[in-house]
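Provenance

Sequences were taken from public entries as deposited. Structures were produced by running a predictor on each sequence independently, with no templates supplied. The record for MFS transporter from Methylobacterium oryzihabitans is shown for reference.
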Amino acid sequence: MAMSVASRPGSATTAWTGPGFAEFVALTALVMGLTAVTIDSFLPAFPAIQADFAIGGPNRLQYLVYVYMLGFGVAQLAYGPVSDGLGRRATMMAGFAIYLAGSVLAMLAQSFEVLLLARAIQGVGGAAGRVLAVAIVRDRYEGRDMARVMSFCMMVFLIVPIVAPTMGGLLLLVGSWRLIFGAMLALCVVLLAWFGWRMPETLHPAFRRPLRAGTVASGIAATVTTRASFGYATALGLLTGCIMAYVGSAQAVFDTGLYHLGPYFPVAFGLIAGAMGVATLVNARLVRRLGMRRLSHGGTIGLCAMAALQLAVILAFGGRPPLPVLILTLGLCQFLLSFALPNFNALAMEPLAAIAGTASSFIGFYTTLLAAFCGLLVGQSFDGTVIPLGIGYLVLGLATLAVVLVTERGRLFGAGGPVPARPDRPAA
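Predicted structure for MFS transporter:
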């Protein structure tokens, strides 16, 4: 059952004054979606950036994605503990400010190295949205309702990759790639104003934690030693590695290195992202009836089967399958893994309500770096074919299934039982 902050122990006198359900989901999803805009909208600009800075080899341009993910991953360690002590609002505002600084630097960058630095700063700022959006959702909801909200958030979040490359392509028609970073800056200003105006503080005073090294360490230790949390965080990181492998390889596969789609690159990219959006919508409608484990475990098994079929097709065509076939198989893989992603996130967070900020920080840090590492390995293996991408999906899918089996002690589709919504008292 959905629970507001006011309905939790110790908060009976505090009424929720924030946005209604639809606005809450939209705002939270767009805060999370800032990362997708930051990654996906400038993918069509890779050739222009390569020409401006005389960069040799398309694989080097992938660093613009992965350096963002590095800053994004490392910074998440800080935001959760800070927000557990100072509150979600102030911490989010600080993250927005850092992101704005990185966007301005990117617009003014006169070398590839400075642009990489700007991307890292953007990542540090954007990490606030990833950590705090999840913590805010956990502050307000629990159990299957949290999974439902996360699915709606993920659906909005996944619409962004459909439109972001097109947006970047349109901006390139009227100006340079620097305009894309200007659009990122403008979006961040809008979100800062909207969040500051409409979102109240969601952290209940009873669950504030002093910002001390020992307190943070105990929160991280609790996350790592909670079997379901660490297991599903690992599974989440591996599956997200599939997405990062796809995103890192997309420009080379669809444009500069293989299919040479040019202005039609956003169409292919958007079709595959659209499959993820459809899956998360279906998940949001089914999760309260079927449960997180049934949907996520079924999606993971389906992904493994589809990835095996995809690799067989890729090999049958010598690594260069017809474009419609590749879009279909990749779209089906993304569709299936999208039944797992929001549910894995909710399952990892479910036992950790009293330390939601610190837990979201560590889980975000861990899953982001794991995903970026896996994505980098696959992306940098691009050899003019999609064989590395096909192998990557299959290996990461099988590894995810193995982790889930270990986490659930070999029992799928409903093992584990209910988790208490909150511990009896806040963690010290």
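Confidence is low (pLDDT under 50) at residues 1-13, 415-428.
Residues 20-407 form a domain with the Growth Hormone; Chain: A; fold (CATH 1.20.1250.20).
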